[in-house]
Amino acid sequence: MTTLTPEEIHRALDENARAPYGTARNTHAEALGAAAEATGDRELFRRALVGMIEAYEYSAERTKMVVPFARLLQEYDRDPGSFGAHEVHRLFWRFKWVAGRIVESPEIPLTAVDGWLTDMERRYRLAGYSERAVRQAEFHLADATGDQARMERAIAGWAAAERDTMSDCHACETNTQGWYWARKGDDAKAIEVWEPVLSGGRSCMEEPHRVLALSLLPLVRLGRGDEARSYHLRGYRMVRGKESLLRSVGEHIEFCALTGNESRGLEILAEHAAHLGPLADVESQMEFAGGVLVLLRRLTDLGHGDGPTVSHQGTNRTVKELYELLYAEATGIAARFDARNGTALVSRRLVDRIGQQPLVAALPLGVRSAELPSASAARPTAARGTGEDGTDAEFTALLDRARAARQQGHPSTEALWARVARLAETGQGGADGADLSDPALAGDLLAHRAATAARTGDPAARALYAEAAASYRAAGQHSRAAHAQLGVAGSAAQFDAEPDEVRELLGAAARAAQALDENDPERLRRLVGSELTTLRIESYLRERATDGPASPVDTRLVAELEGLVAAYGDETAALTAGPGSAADLLADAELMLAKLALAVDDLDRAAPLLTSAARRLLAAEQPWDAVEPLSLQASVLAARGQLDDAESTARTALAHAAELTEGADQAGVRLTLADILLRRGDHAEEAALLALDATHWLDEAGLAATAGARARLLLARAYAAAERTAEATEVLQSALPDLVEHGEGEGVQARELLGGLLRELHDPRAAAEQYLLAAETAKRWDDPRFEAGLAHSAAEALADGGLHAEAEAAYGRSLERWRRAGGNPVAEARVLRSLAWLAAEDEESGDGFTRARALMEEALSVVDDSDEAGMRYERAQTWQQLARLLQDELEDEDEDEGEGEDEGEEGRPSPEGRATREQMVLLLDQAAALYAEFGADALHERFQCVAYAAWTEQELGRTESGIARLTTLVTELGTLEGPAAADITTRAESLLEQLR
User: Cα(335)–Cα(332) distance, rounded to whole angstroms?
Assistant: First the structure.
């Protein structure tokens, strides 16, 4: 570095100032400082010192700025006159930074810290600055040392002092003021103070990043979990990967640990594991480690102490190992602060923080996180003979509840039988006093085991059902035996028994149902159940026997189901509630018919079937089973555009879902309603809450990677519609790997949505990546329009990101695909216009504007000679943009050749400049005339053309002509109503005044 010339050092300082903050920038700044000092150029050396201070401030080495600042201060004291006004301001501004850094450096004695503050106060007073920044710095020292009286005096003095050019920005001051109330335990007051920053009204380079993190736990403690969730999703995206904000990263990890989101906390830790080692800024190291320690302690409490975490000091660590290492490091740093301060305050605060208990059992965040491995800690179990079912009478009551729930078809049936079986098998809770030799109870337990085996894919289900049937027959419960016999047939089909064997078993089950006593109240139900099961299994066997692709709809099954409903649909017992009701079975048949109709998009056929199925189930007092047909009915109504009826039906379904126990069922009805609300376009916030709830249900059901990913896609759409872009992006990015696995269609849809979100977040290069990945998938599809549209979006993002060559290639790809698809002149014209503007920005080739004009002319040829409204609008757009292009070309020539080169005598345009302006007026007139055909819908574009033409007329020396154009437009606007016409009238009248 010492061989660099001053000019080279200046250039290097400029380059380093644009580099990302971090160790690399700091190292380069240090080297440039040494090189600048070696030149003997004091001004250059001062600039290098400032560059070093700036680099340190926004990195994990903030405390290192004290040394270069001290040297800069020496330079000032040696020769104040050599500092320009800007340099002096910059010096005093950074004095505040250093005041904070020395407080955060435990190796600097308190006497030296107080000396710095005294010097700062003296210098500020002599320079005529307010003491506001001094009192703020003193407040931080008082808090660090636990001097409550001094802290109160400092904050009072801070508030009383006037704001001036040395005061921190409003956002940073608000941060500290709210933090003061949070430190005092007044969460509500802290949030109130932070509100201007949280709402986005005040911001700076590191705000609202820090305040969003600080507000998380106070909000949860106040019961405002929805806001905390939102601020976590927004805020973590802001602090991710930023060295200077590691303490905020630690606060996000801490929030996850205390809200049931330990897996999310581990993911954040993994992203920042490289910063777990020693840092120059030891306070940041301690604060970051503190948040991590909260997570690790929580994981240990949950039984994950032996589970893996991240690498530290070159070795992969378990939860317990990492906890012990970080605890030793963090408490060691705290002890250093306490030794300097003469208190135990820092250590006590750290230990209290680590020992926090969860604030809520679970606060769903909506983002996809990997499930934690099974915990090793043993779960507590009730002692034998104690607990809820602690007596024989209570066990008997539980058994009665399980049988009643089964009779009713209640969603709690499975859970109740699971408890009965567990207690019966272990002899707990008084079950050892139950008569387990009772064949009826034995049959019940066997039937429960058989159903569990069938659900989990265990072939033992068939034998268990057979045993259950035998037990029921021994108990004289022939209706239950017939039902179990049907289970034998179903299990045989499930586990691929030979068709003849399955049919024989179905026949045996049917005969068992028919053999029931005519007076048996269950007889009708068993007959309907046997026939319905037989129809289902026969359809399955036919499908199994088909070599070729299966037909979308089994027409034979449709006819058979219709026959079943016709045969039993009018039976009184089939329509009402009660032990013998078959209403739910007939509703099941109608639901099957409706789904078969929906498979071929026959909405007209599906709708009445769904209505009838829901009616039967509600009449049978089984509202939980009515949820599915009602949800499907709502979707059908939405597809028909009947959104009011769809919403009402979906809300009815949600109301009936209260007793459902399956996560997929609870999620499904919420997603249906959320989708309908998004279609309506005015309930995005409610749709987001419903979709968020659905993701939680699906995660709990172990479906995070499948149905949960689709729910997150809907949640992202809802957040996007509610203009909660950062939250939408976080949710969608977390689900993207799963969505890509689901199939090309969902992957492309997700990437396209993500690309749009990233553009809104001003990350055009990341947006272009998503669009291009989606386009790569879509190019395999038969219809090239999908790839064309995605390539166009990618090109726009690339252009926004300054990658013009890549953008031009993407536009070219889009144009080629649109032309291959054919019949898309509007899309072609738009791509050609975009290519024209890219060409106009090409400063290297020398013929950029020539190529740009040619592309605009080509766009005109694409949309010429058509009376179609869309084409006429695009023609107007192209004329208008060509006029703008000609104006830019004139201005570019002026810059290249000297101001006014296109002007002749007395400031009038040269012949060439005049001809170009005449052409511009003609183009603008043509565009305005076409826009007029669209009335109020193109009023803004028309005004732009008229105004632009008026100014161009003025440049041509024809001001009166320009005034006449605008006057005519204002007169016409006077006949129109609406805010758009009023706004444009005001603007046109203002422009008239300027022209006159």
Answer: 5
Residue 877 tokens, joined: 């757009």
Pull the structure tokens for residue 447: 């039937």
Residues 610-658 have pLDDT tens digits of 999 999 999 999 999 999 999 999 999 999 999 999 999 999 999 999 9
Question: Following DSSP, what letter does each residue of 433-465 receive, concatenated?
Answer: GS-TT-HHHHHHHHHHHHHHHHHTT-TTHHHHH
pLDDT at 376 over 50: no
With contact defined as beta carbons under 8 Å apart, do 273 and 246 qualify? no
Question: How many Cβ atoms sit within 10 Å of the Cβ of residue 479?
Answer: 20
CA distance 497 to 465: 15
What mean pLDDT is reported for the chain? 91
* 89 vs 111: CA distance, rounded Å: 27
At CA 887, angle to CA 883 and CA 890, rounded to 5?
Answer: 140
For residue 902, name the pLDDT band (cuts at 50, 70, 90).
low
Beta bridge partners of 736: none
- Omega before residue 6 within 30° of 0, cis: no
d(CA 133, CA 125): 11
Residue 52's nearest CA partner among 67, 39, 73, 40 is: 67
Q: In the prediction, which pLDDT does 992 show?
A: 87
Beta partners for residue 903, in sequence order: 909
At a CB cut-off of 8 Å and minimum separation 6, what does 325 contact?
312, 313, 317
Closest CA to 639 of 691, 676, 584: 676
Kindly provide the b/e burial profile for residues 624-646, where b requires at least 16 CB atoms within 10 angstroms of the residue's own CB: bbbbbbbbbbbbbbbeeeebebb
- Three-class SS of residue 903? strand
Full DSSP string of 832-852:
HHHHHHHHHT--SSS-HHHHH
Measured between alpha carbons, how far is residue 775 from residues 314, 751, 770, 786, 794 in Å? 41, 9, 9, 7, 9
Half-sphere exposure of 297 (CA within 13 A, CB side): 18
CA 542 to chain centre: 45
Instruction: Label each residue of 801-826 as H, E or C.
Output: CCCHHHHHHHHHHHHHHHHHHCCCHH
* Rg from Cα positions in the chain: 37
**Pairing status of strand 308-312 against strand 315-318:** antiparallel
The pLDDT score that the predictor gives to residue 378 is: 37
Contact 709, 671 (CB under 8 A): no
Q: Where are the beta strands (DSSP E) in 481-614?
A: none
Confidence of residue 175 (pLDDT cuts 50, 70, 90): very high
* Tokens 């340190």 belong to residue: 56
The predicted pLDDT at position 765 comes to 96
pLDDT given at position 96:
85
User: What global pTM score does this model have?
Assistant: 0.86
Q: What one-character DSSP code corresponds to residue 380? A: P
Instruction: Report the alpha-carbon distance of residue 302 to residue 354 in Å, rounded.
Output: 15
Tokens of residue 295, six digits:
């997570």
Q: How many CA atoms lie within 13 A of 360 on its CB side?
A: 21
Which amino acid would we find at residue 608? P
Would you say 232 and 264 are in contact if contact means Cβ atoms under 8 Å apart?
no
Give the pLDDT band of residue 387 (cuts 50, 70, 90).
very low
